Each structure stands twice: as structure tokens, then as C-alpha cells.
Amino acid sequence: MINARLMNILRAPVITEKSELVSKHSTYIFKVLPNATKTEIKQAVESLFNVKVEKVHTCNVLGKKRRSAHGMGVRSDWKKAYVTLAKDSQLDLASGLADKESN
Q1: Is 61 left (phi over 0), alpha (psi -120 to 50) or beta?
Q2: Which of 8, 16, 71, 82 has the highest CB neighbour count under 10 A?
Q3: b/e map of 7-34 (b: 16 or more CB within 10 Å)?
Q4: Which residues make Cβ contacts (< 8 Å) with residue 98, sequence separation at least 6?
Q5: pTM for the structure as a whole
Q6: Three-state SS at 54
């Protein structure tokens, strides 16, 4: 896999109230490229954060229709990835570093 492609697959972490609740179960949500596969997402997270990924679920989010002064518009569609880590791994998205728990 090309390193430049891996660096561009993960666009941004999704930080919402729901994602904070899910992160307690070692699942983190990322905004990813629309054409990224589950295998590429797994490789990107493992190489960037040095953690072990158990599984990846993806979801295509459709853009909402919005009304403006210039008429109707549509937000862009995007892809969301739910990444579940191994039990001994944990991500710290605030600092961008991965920490391994020792239990």
C-alpha cells in the first residue's frame, strides 16, 4: 500500500456526544475517503496510531438538503468508519498519540 494513500484515507475524527459514548467500548469514528475500503482503513489506523484493529464498519452518509437565499442546495455525501480496537489498545485523539493500556 502506498504511504501517501494511507495518510489521506483518514480525513478527521468525528467528535460528538455519540462518538464519546461509543469510544468507551474501544470504538472510534473517523471521516474517511468515499472510495476507501475496510482493509485500507484498518491499515491506515494501525500504521498511523500503532494500535491493533479488530474490525471496521463503514457507513455512507447522504448529504442533507438545505435551503438558502439562492435556492435549494445539497451538502456533500461522505463516508464514516467505525473502528473497533483490540482490548489492550486505546487512542488519544486529543494529542494524536496512541496509548497502550497495561491491565
Answers
A1: beta
A2: 82
A3: eebbeebbeeeebeebbeebbbbbebbe
A4: 49, 50, 51, 89, 90, 91, 92
A5: 0.82
A6: strand
Q: For 63-98, give the secondary structure using H, E and C.
A: CCEEEECCEEEECCCEEEEEEEECCCEEEECCCCEE
**Tens-of-pLDDT digits for all 103 residues of the chain?**
578 888 899 999 998 898 888 888 899 999 999 999 999 999 999 999 999 999 999 999 999 999 989 999 999 999 999 999 998 888 877 665 455 444 4
C-alpha cell of 83? 473502528
Looking up cell 497502550 gives 100
